[in-house]
Design goal:
The protein has 15 helices and 12 strands. It is α/β, with parallel strands linked by helices.
């Protein structure tokens, strides 16, 4: 598979990495043997970069990755995982040691401060914070490269990049989500390795809708365009794709191996899609979760992102499927039907989003009786 240099890490990575967060499931249970076989097949096809995290796949992803890579030359593989601790050094070390045990490895190649926000970086991670612990772990050979992943507002990423502390960053980027386009170039220009997640918009690009079908008439065609779009950015070294079956894996590998540039026609269709998008409603929720806890336990960011998929991209079937999924997972919170329109979330939202009104719309368009 085609390889690219990962910033100044000294690593070369395949342009397509394996995101071990959407492993095969049946009846809400991870299929262990099928998952291990899928990862091994990915390695056989040239994907030697595998990304995992403690909470993925019902907390089983790290263990599955560890079992799947047993027997392969460890030095030939690049394994990344994540730590969501923000302040406590003892807990940070506990998480790292647990990950090493689950992965059955002596070291993790790329270790991310997981999904950090600008405030968390400034208050708990930047020196003399947890970054100092990561340095100790690196000196001990437990991790090889210190990295961060990010889900905050675009303006918050600049100080993190400019700090010069990190060797790799992992951010969302796709033809549906270009908010960090400039930040990617900024990081690349400073010698940071850039990996992106969600190159297919969490699967939305392949879903049926009139606006998505402007890109290509088939899901396979849209996936092809989506991967090639993400990899067309000169600052990106690798894209992580969560692949749940061999067919999806082999299609993506074929696209990555050929990696033809976007045609002028494809670029025109992407730009047209963005002009069409600008005519539609965009909610603007950043999943900062300042709205939590909701008195009625509504998973507000999940509901808003589902509604936005319909309003902005015309992905109504996809949006309804997400709500149906939420209704089957009470551990994740309630859907919009539990909202009593108390207005607490309206007051808490730093983006000034009229959440209560959007909950009304969600009930109307995605189902759910008004209380």
């Amino acid at each position: 598979m085609k390889q690219r240099t990962l910033g100044k890490t000294g690593l070369t990575v395949p342009v397509l990495g394996f995101g071990a967060m959407r492993l095969p499931e049946k009846d809400q249970k991870v299929k262990l043997k099928a998952s291990m076989a899928l990862i091994r097949r990915a390695i056989e096809l040239g994907i030697n970069y595998i990304d995992t995290a403690p909470a993925y796949c019902r907390n089983l992803s790290e263990e599955i990755v560890g079992r799947a890579i047993a027997g392969f030359d460890r030095e030939s593989l690049i394994i990344s995982s994540k730590n969501d601790e923000r302040k406590d050094a003892d807990r940070w070390w506990e998480h790292l040691k647990t990950s090493l045990k689950q992965l059955a490895t002596d070291y993790i190649d790329i270790y991310f401060f997981w999904g950090i926000k600008g405030r968390e970086f400034a208050e708990g991670i930047a020196p003399p914070g947890l970054y100092e612990e990561a340095l100790k772990a690196k000196e001990q050979g437990l991790i090889r490269h210190i990295a961060f992943s990010f889900h905050d507002e675009p303006k918050e990423i600049t100080p993190i990049i400019d700090s010069g502390l990190f060797e790799v960053m992992l951010v969302q980027y796709s033809l549906m989500d270009r908010a960090l386009e400039t930040a990617i170039q900024r990081a690349h220009s400073r010698g940071m390795g850039v990996v992106v997640m969600g190159p297919l918009g969490g699967g939305r690009i392949t879903q049926p809708s009139p606006i998505m079908e402007l890109l290509a008439p088939t899901p396979k065609g849209r996936a092809n365009v989506g991967l090639r779009f993400a990899l067309s950015h000169p600052g990106i070294s690798s894209v992580l794709s969560g692949m749940s079956d061999v067919g999806m894996l082999e299609e993506n590998v074929d696209t990555a191996n050929k990696l033809s540039p976007l045609t002028s026609g494809e670029r025109e269709r992407i730009e047209y899609l963005w002009k069409e998008r600008e005519r539609r409603t965009e909610i603007g929720c950043t999943s900062c979760r300042y709205c939590e806890p909701c008195p009625q336990k509504v998973n507000i960011p999940f509901v808003l992102s589902s509604l936005e998929a319909g309003l902005t991209w015309g992905l109504w079937d996809y949006a309804k499927e997400r709500i149906a999924f939420l209704r089957g997972r009470p551990d994740l919170g309630e859907d919009m039907s539990a909202c009593d329109l108390c207005g607490e979330c309206d007051e808490k939202c730093p983006q000034g989003i009229a959440v209560s009104e959007l909950m009304r719309q969600a009930r109307e368009k995605l189902g759910g009786e008004s209380n």
